Amino acid sequence: MMLNSTPVVSVILPAFNAARYIHAAINSILVQTFTDFELIVIDDGSTDDTYRIVLGFTDSRMRVLRNSTNLGLVKSLNRGVDAARSGLLARMDADDCSEPDRLAIQVEWMQRNPRLGVLGSYYETFDERHFVLDTVTLPVTDAEVRYNLYGKTHCFCHPAVLMRRQALKEAGGYRDEWFPAEDLELWLRMLENWHGANVPQVLHRLRRHDSSVTSQNARKQAQLVIAAVTEALSRGICPDDIDLAAQQAGWARGEIFVALGLAANGVDDGFGYHLQRAMQLDERVALSSFHDLLGDRVSTFMHHSDADVTGCRDLLDRVFAELPASFGKLRYSRTYIESQVHAIAAFHYSKSDKKTQSR
User: Fold this and answer.
1) Residue 197 pairs with which residues in a beta bridge?
2) pTM of this prediction?
3) Among 14, 48, 132, 343, whose CB has the most other CB atoms within 10 angstroms?
C-alpha cells in the first residue's frame, strides 16, 4: 500500500514505557489478514527502550509520533485521532495482542451496519506467563449494549474497538478530565446518536499486570464512572431509530446503578430520587436490577476495601434504611446479599492464608 493512499482503517496505538510488550503488540497488527490499514504509534515520552523498539520496524504502513514529554493516554489518543487518515479508527494497547482476523471481521461488520458507531468483541485476558485467565463475553446487539451500558460499565473492551471517525468526532472525542473512565464516558456520548455492538468472538487478548492503567486507577475510575452515568442520564438522549422503551430500560438500570454508587460512597442525598426515577422509567427493570446491581456493588466494595465486612454491613444498613416503599418487596434481598458478603470474605482470607478468619 502506497503511503499517499487512504487506508480503510487507522490503528491508534499509544505507548508509554512499554518496552517489554510493544513488539508483540505491534506485530499482532502487522500480521492482520486485513492489510489495508495504517498503524499510528504514539510514543508518549517513554524513558525506556519503547521508542527504539518501535523504530526497529520497517513496515511502510507504520507511522510513528513522539511526544517530547509524557502527556498521558487521552492526549496521546487525540493526537493519534487527529493524525489518522481513515474513516474507521481501531484502538490498540501497547501491552495487548489482537487476533490475526480481528480487523477483517470488524471491518465487515461495519460495512454491513452503517449505523454502527462503535464495535467491540469478546476477548481473553492473560498473565505474564501467557496463561489464559478468562474469556470475557460482552453484550452483542445494540439493544443489549443499551440495556447494560448505564448500569454495567463493562460493555466494550476499549483496546478492542473499531470506531467510525464521524461518530467519534460528532461526540467530541476523548475528554482528558474523565481519565481513567474516558472510554465509558465516550461510549455514553457516542451511543446518543449511533449504535453499538460486539462481535461474539474472541478477537483480542488483554494482558493483566500490576502496572496496567486499570490496576493503578481502579478507585478513581469507579467514582468517575458514577459521574459519567449520572451526566448521561441527565441528558436523556438516544438515536431516533431505536425503540424508546428499550432505551428506557437501560436508563432505569442506570438510575439504580447511580443510587447504589452514591450509597457506597456515603452520599445518601439523591439515593431515593434515583430509585424513584428508575421506577418511573421501567418498574419491572428497576426491581430486577436492584437485586443484581446491589450484588455487584457489594462485590466491588469488598474488593476495594480489603474485604471489610463491617464496612459492607454499614453500606447495606444505609441502602435498606433509605429504601422507598415501592422497593419494599425487595427487603428480603438483604439476607442473600449478606451471605454473599461472608462468602467473599471467606475466599479473601483463604487466599491470604488467614484460616481462622476464613472459617
Assistant:
1) 119
2) 0.92
3) 14
